[in-house]
Amino acid sequence: MSFDWPVRVYYEDTDAGGIVYYANYLRFLERARTEWLRSLGFEQEILRQQGILFVVREVSLKYKSSARLDDELSVSVTLEKMGKASFQLSQKVYRGGAGSAVELVSAFVTIACIDDQSKPRSIPAEIVAALQADDDH
């Protein structure tokens, strides 16, 4: 199942030409991932306090078209693969609503689970269960 999060393009997101600066798409993707986890009942700060951290291990982006100042975007998150200490996501950034959406960016992101000492750790069972249940819907 795909999770979608709305993003508005602000002046601070753009370059001098009013086009979203390429690196800012990473921010949009991060916000959507954070809100996806929150929608499943997992707050990043609470996880951090428990010694559970999710970090980007690898990311690959493909830019297809540009977003501009004041555009309304939608950022999707879809679980692709679960591992013991990591998972892979596909993410897309769209402009426009249902039926008229234009894909601007596609990304593949590998997220690793680490402890508060930056050492790899298994993803807790309750998080695995929630991610897999969400993927089944």
Indicate the radius of gyration in whole angstroms.
16 Å
CATH fold field value: Thiol Ester Dehydrase, Chain A
Overall average residue pLDDT: 94
User: Which structural class is indicated by helix and strand composition?
Assistant: alpha+beta
Uncertain segments? none
Q: Which architecture does the CATH hierarchy give at level 2? A: Roll
Largest sheet properties: 5 strands, antiparallel
N-to-C span = 5 Å
Strand arrangement, major sheet: 1-3-4-5-2
Name the beta content range: 35-45%
Query: How much helicity do the residues have?
Result: 10-25%
What is the string of helix and strand elements?
EHHEEEEH
CATH superfamily placement: Hotdog Thioesterase
Domain count: the total is 1
Contiguous helical run count? 3
| Multimerization status | single chain
CATH class: Alpha Beta
The total of beta strands comes to 5
* Tertiary shape: globular
